[in-house]
Write the structure tokens for this entry.
Amino acid sequence: MISKRHTFTAVLAAALLSATVAAQVSQVPVTPAEPAKGSVNQLNWLVGCWQGKSSRDGSTMNETWFSPRGGSVMGVGMAYIDNKTMSSEAMRLYDDGDSIKLLLRAAGRADVTMTLDSIGSRFAAFLVKDGEVTTRLRYQQKSDVELIATLRIEQGERRRGADYSFGKTDCAGLFSPEVKAVTEPEKK
């Protein structure tokens, strides 16, 4: 049986995106005056299969990102506890002029489109704004085998969010019917 604590943590990311979804529903999204410049071809460091375990509730999270093709990078993600899926999401990074957009399509929720805020050799940050609410999502590769995803929602002085640590994993293991144990990312 899944406890209330497990359920709360497993759906935290989805709940955090609820404010962003509300911003999208209002039909008055505000984007940065000048999005950062970049191309999905700069995101090769994100490609591959990533897996992490939440220290908060023990849930397992997987993200798989494909190679850039035709101005897009596709990704899928899911979180589960005790073989029960808690959330799933389709993700698409795509070139938008000389910038990048991130489309998040979570199961059962409205789509959210974020705009590139900053980019570097091993990181990319995205945001969406509506009035006083700003939602930020940042991916940063700490090493060849460690990826950090940081989600923040800011409303005036109020801040909330979550950090996720992923280790590079063998993609074949994600397609195997055998459930493999999650290990901590290797530190270099």
Notes: Residues 12-25 form the longest helix (14 residues). Helices lie at 4-10, 12-25, 171-174.
